[in-house]
Every structure is written in structure tokens, then in C-alpha cells.
Design a protein that fits this description.
alpha+beta; single chain; two-stranded antiparallel sheet; Phosphorylase Kinase, domain 1; 352 residues; Aminoglycoside 3'-phosphotransferase, Chain: A, domain 2
Length: 352
């Protein structure tokens, strides 16, 4: 493959920017992993010549898609997060290089070290033998890693430079809602579709947001689920796919894990891993911080709505109806689940 027009510029980038100490770097083989619906992902097997001899090394190249449901796709976000988290309690692939130059590989991209491990999508995880035999241990590892993320001090790191410092939780949630809702309403207007329920939900979320100061902000992954963890045995070897990351409340990620769409077939298992009581106990033990059930319920409403918006946008953008997710297939069910969460929260029922 070395020297082809398609890969030559990328090969030269790797030789000059990633492995500058090597005499030659050649792309020996390229493959595409299964799964994933956002960034273009390539596995590259490289032949690297050094004074000590030749070695074969695998790297991962993630390239921004030409289009997708969550623009803009920003390499700078991944660069900030991966570089900041390296060496922390949150395992991430090591960042090797990146480029914004479309002449190198069509669109902006990052290069990461390859991390060996297993990954299972949330829709298929019940078929994984380790999940069947050791689900509780997997769930504990997920929560322990989340506690590590919440311990991470992002201030003074590239994360702060990217997301900015200061601001309340309420301001962050309002900005997130605007980021999701405005493109949806614009698209719905072009299609001649009214979305009164989603306007009302947006207003409810803004009115009821926990309005706390910036001392409560943590780095939020935004898609914290099976499918975005690489497993080595029963331990998480790497957390990947940070394109939905933001700064938010400590309970925000727990809300994602606990929303109905993260439970799917078994409503008793949060994130298809642990019952809520076990999840809360593990988080409190690992983080030393209490779980606020009402705030988890609030953020479950937020994430359920944001997931619905993604699917609604996909449905409105397609020229013919598609069935991409449970939201598209069963919009009334998702709406009922969301309204039930609000009803329980407003009634003071600590149900999840």
C-alpha cells in the first residue's frame, strides 16, 4: 500500500509528525472495525524502520465524517481530552498526532495508539459471555471509572482551554439544549412539522435545571455506555468516543446511565449493568460523594430527550422513513417514558 495516492500523504504525515525518529514508515495494511456511527475509523498496521531494525505497529486513525447527526466534529475536542486524561484514573488511548489539513487525509483526523480489548454494543451486550457470567463486576468497573472521571481536575488542563472555565450548571445545560434543539426546530420548520412536545420538554428542563456554580462542574463523557468501553477481561482498558463530551453536573453521567434508553429490555438494570441501589452504593464508595436521586432523575430526562432529538433529526433528514433506533421505531413509547420520569420527579417519587 505504500506510496499509493490515497494513503501517501497520510504515510508522510506519520513519518514526519508521529515517528520522526524512524528512517522509514510504511502503511502495510488497513482495516475498518465493525460498528460505530460517527467518525470514520481506520486500523493501520505500520512497518517502521529504525536503527534497531524493523517493527510492526498498529495505530488507530479517526477522521471526522463528511456529515453526521452531531456537527461540528472537532478534532480539537478529542486532542484536549485525550491529552489531558493521559496518566489519569480514566484509561484512554494515547494521542500520537493530529491534523486539520484536508490535503493529508481528506478531513481533519487524530492518530491514537491501538489498545487491545473487546467492545460490545449496548444492543448486543447480553450475548457477550463475560456479561452473562460476570455482569456485576463489569458494572462495578464502569462506575469505578466514572468516579475516576469525576476526580479528574480539569481546571488548568487543555480541557479548560477548550470548554472554558466558569459558568453555572444551569448555563451549561441551557447551552446543551440550544445545541440540540435549534437545529431540530429549524429542520422541522423546513419539513412543515410541528414539535410542541419537545418545545415543552425543553422549557421544563430549563426551568428545573440544578442551578449550581462552576465548582460542581466535572468532565462529562456524554455517551457513557457499553460500546464505548474497551475491555481487557473484566477491566476497562480504554474509554473512547468523546465527541459528545462537555462540562456538567456530577449526576449528569449517572442520569445517562439510568435513562430508559440505556436500560432497554430490562428496566431494572441501569446501563444494562447494575440495579440502581447497587449502582448508587458503588458510586458513593468509589467517589466518596453522595448520589442525589432527584438530580439523577432530572438528568435522565435530559438525556432521554437529547437521544430522542438525535433520532428525530435523523428521521426528518432522511428522504424515506427509516428505523434507526428505538426512538424512531417507537416515538410514543419514548415520549411516555420521558413524561413518566418527569411525573415521578415532580411527585417526589425516587423511582428509577
Amino acid at each position: 500500500m505504500s506510496g499509493t495516492a490515497e494513503w501517501g500523504a497520510l504515510e508522510r504525515f506519520l513519518a514526519t509528525e508521529v515517528y520522526a525518529e524512524a528512517s522509514t514508515v510504511g502503511i502495510a495494511e488497513v482495516s475498518r472495525p465493525k460498528g460505530g456511527a460517527s467518525w470514520d475509523t481506520f486500523l493501520l498496521d505500520l512497518d517502521i524502520d529504525r536503527r534497531g531494525g524493523r517493527e510492526r505497529r498498529r495505530v488507530v486513525v479517526r477522521r471526522a465524517p463528511a456529515s453526521g447527526p452531531m456537527p461540528p466534529y472537532e478534532v480539537h475536542k478529542d486532542v484536549a481530552i485525550l491529552s489531558a486524561l493521559e496518566g489519569s484514573d480514566v484509561p484512554v488511548p494515547r494521542l500520537l498526532g493530529w491534523s486539520l489539513d484536508p490535503a493529508v487525509f481528506e478531513r481533519q483526523f487524530i492518530v491514537m495508539e491501538f489498545v487491545e480489548g473487546e467492545s460490545h454494543d449496548i444492543t448486543q451486550v447480553e450475548r457477550w459471555r463475560r456479561w452473562q457470567e460476570d455482569r456485576v463486576t463489569l458494572g462495578c468497573a464502569i462506575i469505578d471509572t466514572l468516579a475516576g472521571l469525576h476526580r479528574f481536575e480539569w481546571r488548568g488542563t487543555p480541557v479548560e482551554a477548550f470548554f472554558g472555565a466558569g459558568g453555572t450548571v444551569g448555563a451549561r445545560v441551557s447551552a446543551l439544549l440550544e445545541e440540540y434543539l435549534e437545529p431540530l426546530f429549524a429542520l422541522a420548520h423546513r419539513r412543515g412539522v410541528g414539535l410542541p412536545l419537545w418545545r415543552e420538554l425543553g422549557a421544563w428542563l430549563r426551568k428545573n435545571v440544578p442551578d449550581e456554580d462552576d465548582e460542581d462542574l466535572v468532565l462529562v463523557h456524554g455517551d457513557y455506555r457499553f460500546g464505548n468501553f474497551l475491555w481487557r477481561g473484566s477491566e476497562i482498558a480504554a474509554v473512547h468516543d468523546w465527541e459528545r463530551a462537555s462540562l456538567g453536573h456530577r449526576m449528569q453521567e449517572l442520569g445517562f446511565i439510568c435513562m430508559p434508553l440505556s436500560r432497554r429490555r430490562d428496566p431494572s438494570l441501569m446501563g444494562k449493568a447494575l440495579p440502581f441501589d447497587a449502582l448508587a452504593e458503588r458510586y458513593e464508595r468509589a467517589s466518596g460523594l453522595p448520589v442525589d436521586v432527584a438530580k439523577v432523575q432530572y438528568f435522565a430526562v435530559l438525556w432521554q430527550m437529547l437521544e430522542a432529538i438525535n433520532a428525530l433529526r435523523t428521521g426528518l433528514e432522511e428522504p424515506i422513513p427509516i428505523v434507526a433506533t428505538a426512538v424512531v421505531a417507537q416515538p410514543n413509547l419514548v415520549a411516555r417514558q420521558t413524561l413518566k420520569l418527569i411525573e415521578d420527579l415532580e411527585a417526589g417519587r425516587p423511582t428509577l
